[in-house]
Amino acid sequence: MTDNQNLLAEQRRALILDEVRRRGGVRVNELTRRLGVSDMTIRRDLDALARQGMVAKVHGGAVPVAEPSTHEPGFEAKSVLEPSAKDEIARAAAALVLPGSAIALSGGTTTYALARRLLDVPDLTVVTNSVRVADVFHEARPASGEGRRAPTVVLTGGVRTPSDALVGPVADRAVRSLHFDLLFLGVHGLSVEAGLSTPNLAEAETNGCLIRSARRVVVVADHTKWGTVGLSSFGTLDEVDTWVTDRGMAAEVRAEVAEHVPGLLVAGETA
């Protein structure tokens, strides 16, 4: 945002709203410095935005209005959110996969983007509970005589969710019988208090089984997932070995995450 005392109230509030949504929350003192106006002006702006249902006021600032913890968007609805960030995350995550590995990909639009980046990694065995991920590998099978072997894909079976993940007892039983080197896990939300969470109770159980069957857990999620809490938790931040995210993550959030997650890989930044 740009310091400007002469911004119209509507312009200033639009900038504040964008900052709240981008960063997951703002503080009054930060906004006064960035916009060059008084605390009282910022507090009036936050009051106006809160009355319109655009933000929720908290002590010292504001955060986005929370969706119901049971709200579960469909795959198509989620696929249009942060597409460039997901592609960057997928590219960075794909570099972690060695030829000949046994990996697992959970359901989600970011893991779907990752699957498309893994098509040229040789000799993979892919375990997934995502119909969309399985389709990526199925549709890209090499034609006869091309000289390379298609990945071996294990689709768990189960009951299909709105996000096209397969969950429930059948999926859980299949996952528990397997062991893989790397799990790439998409999540609905992450926070220090709730850990990894989803609005779908059955999906939470299946994701928990995936975590327990993996030697290494890699979360692939853009910065907007931080601070979101779904109905059911299925893991803690301390169970995550690496979080691959995008450059939209604020510095203070990175510091907080680093206290719990050994590896934070920010796609697009030099290691």
Structure at a glance:
The protein has 271 residues and is of the alpha/beta class. The strands form 4 sheets. It has a 7-stranded parallel sheet, with helices on both faces. Strands 1-3-2 form a 3-stranded antiparallel sheet. The chain has a 3-stranded antiparallel sheet with strand order 10-11-13, covered by helices on one side.
Walk me through what this model shows:
The protein is built from 10 helices and 15 strands. The protein is an alpha/beta fold and 271 residues long. A hairpin with a 5-residue loop joins strand 7 and strand 8.
Shape: elongated
**Residue windows where pLDDT falls under 50 for at least 5 positions:** 1-5
Give me the number of helical elements.
Answer: 10
| Cα distance spanning the termini | 27 Å
Taken in chain order, the helices and strands follow as HEHHEEHHEHEHEEEHEEEHEEEHE
Write the layout of secondary structure elements.
Layout: H1 9-23, E1 26-27, H2 28-35, H3 39-51, E2 55-58, E3 61-64, H4 75-79, H5 83-94, E4 102-105, H6 109-117, E5 125-128, H7 131-139, E6 152-155, E7 159-160, E8 166-167, H8 169-176, E9 180-185, E10 189-191, E11 195-198, H9 201-212, E12 214-220, E13 232-235, E14 242-245, H10 251-258, E15 263-266
Parallel strand pairs: 4-5, 4-9, 5-6, 9-12, 12-14, 14-15
Antiparallel strand pairs: 1-3, 2-3, 7-8, 10-11, 11-13
Helix pairs in contact: 2-3, 5-6, 6-7, 8-9
